[in-house]
Amino acid sequence: MPSSPLLNPVLDDAPQSEQAYRRIKQAILSREMPVGFQSLEPALALRLGMSRTPVHEALVRLQDEGYIDLQPRRGMRVVALSLRDIREITELLACLEVEAAQQTAARRLPPEEIAVFDDAIAAMDRALEASDIDAWNEADYRFHLLLIDACGNRHLIDTARRFLEKANRFRYLTSAYRKPPVYSNVNHAAVVEAIRRGDPQSAVEIHRAHKRRWLAELDEILMRIGDDRAAPDVP
Predict the structure, then answer these.
(1) pLDDT tens per residue, range 176-190
(2) Fold of the CATH domain 16-78
(3) pLDDT of residue 2
(4) What is the Cα gyration radius of the chain?
(5) Alpha-carbon distance values, 182 to 136, 144, 164, 188, 189 (Å)
(6) How far apart are the first and last CA of the chain?
(7) Is CB count within 10 Å lower at the N or C end of the chain?
(8) Residue 58: its pLDDT value, please?
(9) What does pTM read for this prediction?
């Protein structure tokens, strides 16, 4: 059985508040703490093996980022993303990723770094052929993370990673409504080819077109899910 993200300690020298933040957020992202999960701070601190102070600091931070609500006498509660949140996060992430694609292509990555992108595309292709949507989601997430991290802009990386994590919360919700994402594999492979050539303009045009198509598809999905209210049990 895989280890619990919450109970598994962070093996570094980060302050306890940072470790509590990482562990609780990972538990939310992994759905160990699903939407609606509630816990009093003392119980959560005991579970983490920490005092209440760093746990409280972590929870305040997570509330500021929209992952939880802190409620008097009820502790923390994991909240769902609204359909409006989903749309707006997707729009912002599209802007950040297009910029990342441009900067990554302009850097003229060495072959060994390009090979990592090729591996992610190959994993997406294998998952699609096997109709394994969970494996495809993991490979697709890896691709987007690679694209962001390769751009070289530390502030862009930090901001885009945070919104990519939020987007990943509703990935499984939208997956149930999506057509087989063949076009995603094709477009991602085309972006990698533009990066391989060191062609920023093509990388931007391809990735922007891909994001526009995804936004149009997302709008259709959100209409099917419902109007602008809290989405049910968003992972």
Answers:
(1) 788 888 999 999 999
(2) Arc Repressor Mutant, subunit A (1.10.10)
(3) 41
(4) 19
(5) 11, 16, 21, 10, 11
(6) 21
(7) N
(8) 95
(9) 0.79
Among residues 221, 235, 206, 181, the alpha carbon closest in space to that of 83 is found at 221
Q: Which CATH number fits domain 83-225: 1.20.120.530, 2.40.440.10, 1.20.1050.10, 3.10.180.10?
A: 1.20.120.530
Measure the CA–CA gap between 50 and 14, rounded to whole angstroms: 14
Q: Using 50 as the pLDDT threshold, list the residues of the chain that sit under it.
A: 1-3, 227-235
Cβ within 8 Å of residue 45, ≥6 positions away? 51, 52, 55
Alpha-carbon distance values, 18 to 14, 29, 39, 138, 202 (Å): 6, 16, 19, 25, 40
Q: Length of the chain, please?
A: 235
Give the domain ranges of the chain. Answer: 16-78, 83-225
